[in-house]
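Protein modeling request. Please complete all fields; requests missing the sequence field cannot be processed.
Requester role: graduate student
Desired output: 3D structure, token encoding
Chains: 1
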Amino acid sequence: MADEKQPLDSQEPERPTTDMEALMDVEVEITAVLGTSLMPISQILKLGRGAVVELNRGVGEDIDVHANNRLVAKGEVIVVDDRLGVTMTEIIKTLI
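Delivered output (96 residues):
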């Protein structure tokens, strides 16, 4: 019984051939920050449906794009087929 061969479908999947291929399946959380606001909890509790919260950015200003809570780019909001998207205008290079 030790000589039995395993079926092909139960073999291990092929390993990536390069370091870059190994990274391609890593999931990263991307966040587009339109702006922020600082307010006391008492004011937040008074907010109702349709309330407007003023943000620290104006219309037309770049937004921040974060990957895993780290700033990686600046961008602009765009609309594509009735969906919001972000186009990158500047990549932020940081030293680790």
